[in-house]
Amino acid sequence: MKNSFFSRFAPKESKFFPLLKQLSEVVCTASDLLVESLQYDTTEKRTDYYKQIKALERKGDKLTCLIFDELETTFITPFDREDIHALASKMDDVIDGINSCAKRITIYNPHLISDSGKELSRLIQQEAMCISKAMDELETFRRKPGILHGYCNKLHDIENQADDVYEFFIKKLFEEETDCIELVKVKEIMHGLEETTDAAEHVGKVLKNLIIKYA
Amino acid sequence: MKNSFFSRFAPKESKFFPLLKQLSEVVCTASDLLVESLQYDTTEKRTDYYKQIKALERKGDKLTCLIFDELETTFITPFDREDIHALASKMDDVIDGINSCAKRITIYNPHLISDSGKELSRLIQQEAMCISKAMDELETFRRKPGILHGYCNKLHDIENQADDVYEFFIKKLFEEETDCIELVKVKEIMHGLEETTDAAEHVGKVLKNLIIKYA
Amino acid sequence: MKNSFFSRFAPKESKFFPLLKQLSEVVCTASDLLVESLQYDTTEKRTDYYKQIKALERKGDKLTCLIFDELETTFITPFDREDIHALASKMDDVIDGINSCAKRITIYNPHLISDSGKELSRLIQQEAMCISKAMDELETFRRKPGILHGYCNKLHDIENQADDVYEFFIKKLFEEETDCIELVKVKEIMHGLEETTDAAEHVGKVLKNLIIKYA
Lengths: 215, 215, 215
Known about the structure:
Number of helices of chain A: 6
Shape of chain A: globular
CATH class of chain A: Mainly Alpha
Order of helices and strands of chain A: HHHHHH
Distance between the termini of chain A: 35 Å
CATH superfamily of chain A: Phosphate transport system protein phou homolog 2, domain 2
Helix content of chain A: over 70%
Radius of gyration of chain A: 19 Å
Oligomer: homotrimer
Structural class of chain A: mainly alpha
CATH architecture of chain A: Up-down Bundle
Number of strands of chain A: 0
């Protein structure tokens, strides 16, 4: 379970970059599946996609745990431990959010997913791509922080867009929907999607903090 | 983005007190607007107040970020970094809570805000004033912690009062309201208000911790 | 409020184990009361159990605060401060979760608690017992981590079981329940129960982290 005494001193910091990149790829794949799943309205398809996303959520959990373990047993890390910890755990939160959306869609099983719901899922996908590209900058942003800074701003903008989509939709839903049970289903699913766009922006906040500290 | 090498050593700790005070004033202004907004029941007025509160929420975000940046780049801080961090982020949580309440009122747009809802907003306002006054004690509480301790106790008492108001109201709501959609709206708004009184009490817990550590 | 200068150096680390054990016993008693309370469907009984659980929640709060205070004023701790902090605060989260369930049952006052709800409460009780037994291992797991590891795995398994119970039930609820207000009540209570099983698993994650760091 624990590295041997000497292996702790070996230069291992380089392993954190590929691990974080790998985790960001799980975020991407999960968001792709979410976007795809919203094209289908049958119970079977929804259940099937949820299973796939749940498998990714477990993969993300294991990767995050592995990163935490490595943090405990590595002497020299490329950034402060707490920064790597925050980066991994915030990416894991995005995957958890996507999983929670897929779960709600499956267990509430609403008649339809609205266009606004589909739009939110595509915004999550765009954020996931941003995060994944940002991971490629981790090794070099100290010298040229501009690119990473750009991804942070983009994450912030996408989240603002998502806020508008969400608020506009919910307002209309509460004005027009007369079937209360359907309203509850849709409200909870849309709220889950909106919270996931928030979670993705939090990754951007951690990245911005890295720039302040190290660039 | 980063302070110069020498400026990091300059005695800058004193800047944290005015920044924290400033943040507490945003909490106060936001709570004042919330109380005021609940006197109106039209969509227009609600939307208008939400915009004003949202602007404050962004101001609070920026101030909190500024405090975090200063923490990263200042060598000597008046308390442990983590304590200033906790104080700022918990105050920011209160502003976020108020913003979330205003948002829910705007997008759910219920017929009326109950007297209990108005009462909760006034309790949030009282908590905000407590927090703001507590910030004036930060420089001196090591010598005379009694006043700060008093504010902590008051925050705790107000939160208990809010709990009672909330529970009594929700119990009655679920017994009497027959319009399910209206029930969902009101339940979510009241829950947001109650969570905001909790968030304000959390500031009190951070302050109590400061007394234990430093007084 | 503060220990004297010399008393801080006295070997006091041993006090953390009994305090953590005591907190785990509050988790157990609260979960026992929750299981018991679900056998009754009257408003009076529900209110009565909620009062008892609320008293335990306050007891848990005080114990957690005491542990935090001791952490601030003790020089030598058996594990890193942050680990003891995490352990106490995650156990406190379980008690808060149980309290929130009892509160929801009392203020929403649904007609019946389903068999699935009762099952979830028994799973919380099993998790509580696991946590309490795990506390007995804290002094010795460095030499033989197997037993503690077993409790972590058990917590993980129980949480997975709870997920299945919850998802299966909610799916059926949204298919079959036609009374929207009753649906909202039951959904929120079941969600509270499921979140509490999650909170208990988080204690397991903290324990697993201890094994990685120290065993």
